[in-house]
Design a protein that fits this description.
With about 190 residues, the protein is mostly helical. About 70% of the residues lie in helices and about 10% in strands. It has a domain of about 120 residues: Alpha-Beta Complex (50s Ribosomal Protein L17, Chain: A). The protein contains 7 helices and 3 strands. Helix 1 packs across helix 2 and helix 6 crosses helix 7.
C-alpha cells in the first residue's frame, strides 16, 4: 500500500488530488511529455509507471484495472498498443523528470515529465560509447575509428568471397599506381 503523503495535497481533498493525478497521467500517455510543477511531476511518476507496468501485461484484467484510473478509452488503447510494447524490454524507469526552471508568473519550479522511448540496449551502448569517447584523446579516437573501419571491412570480406577477390584486385591496382607514380617521380 502506498505511503500517505504528509503536508498539503495537490487539490483541496484526497479525491481531487487523485483526479488531478489521473488526468495528468492520461495527458502524459496521450502526448508523451508534459510540463508541470516539480511537485506534481514527482507525484504523477509512480502512478504512471504502475499503469505502464499493468499495460505491459496486456491482458483483459490489466486493461480493466487501467480503465479504472484512466477513463478515456483512446488513451488506454494508445497505452496498450503503442507505449507498452515499446517499453517491453525495460524493467522499470519508464519516465524521466527534467527540471526546466521557474515559471514566469509565480516563480514555481517547473519540470518536464516524459516517457522514455529509447530502448535499454540502445541507451547502454550510447552511454558506453560516450564514456569511451570522453576517455580517449582525439588521436586515439581517430585510430579507433580506423580500426573499426578495417574491422568492418574484414567482416565484409569474410562474408562474401567475391567481394574479397574484388578487394584484392583493387588493392593490387592501387599498389601498381603508387609504383608508377614513384617511377615517374624518379625519372624527373
Amino acid at each position: 500500500m502506498p505511503k500517505p503523503t504528509k503536508g498539503p495535497r495537490l487539490g483541496g481533498s484526497p479525491t481531487h488530488e487523485r483526479t488531478i493525478l489521473r488526468n495528468m497521467a492520461a495527458q502524459l500517455f496521450q502526448h508523451g511529455r508534459i510540463t508541470t510543477t516539480e511537485t506534481k511531476a514527482r507525484r504523477v511518476q509512480p502512478l504512471a509507471e504502475k499503469l505502464i507496468t499493468k499495460a505491459k501485461r496486456g491482458d483483459l484484467h490489466a486493461r480493466r484495472l487501467v480503465l479504472q484510473a484512466i477513463t478515456d478509452r483512446d488513451v488506454v488503447d494508445t497505452l496498450f498498443t503503442e507505449i507498452a510494447p515499446s517499453l517491453a524490454d525495460r524493467e522499470g524507469g519508464y519516465t524521466r523528470i527534467t527540471k526546466v526552471g521557474p515559471r514566469k508568473g509565480d516563480n514555481a519550479p517547473m519540470a518536464i515529465i516524459e516517457i522514455i522511448t529509447q530502448s535499454v540496449a540502445d541507451s547502454r551502448t550510447t552511454r558506453a560509447k560516450a564514456g569511451k569517447a570522453a576517455a580517449k584523446p582525439a588521436a586515439a579516437q581517430d585510430e579507433a575509428v580506423e580500426a573499426e573501419a578495417t574491422e568492418s571491412e574484414n567482416i565484409e570480406e569474410a562474408a562474401s568471397p567475391e567481394a574479397a577477390a574484388a578487394q584484392e584486385v583493387a588493392d593490387e591496382a592501387v599498389a601498381e599506381d603508387a609504383a608508377d607514380e614513384d617511377t615517374a617521380a624518379e625519372a624527373k
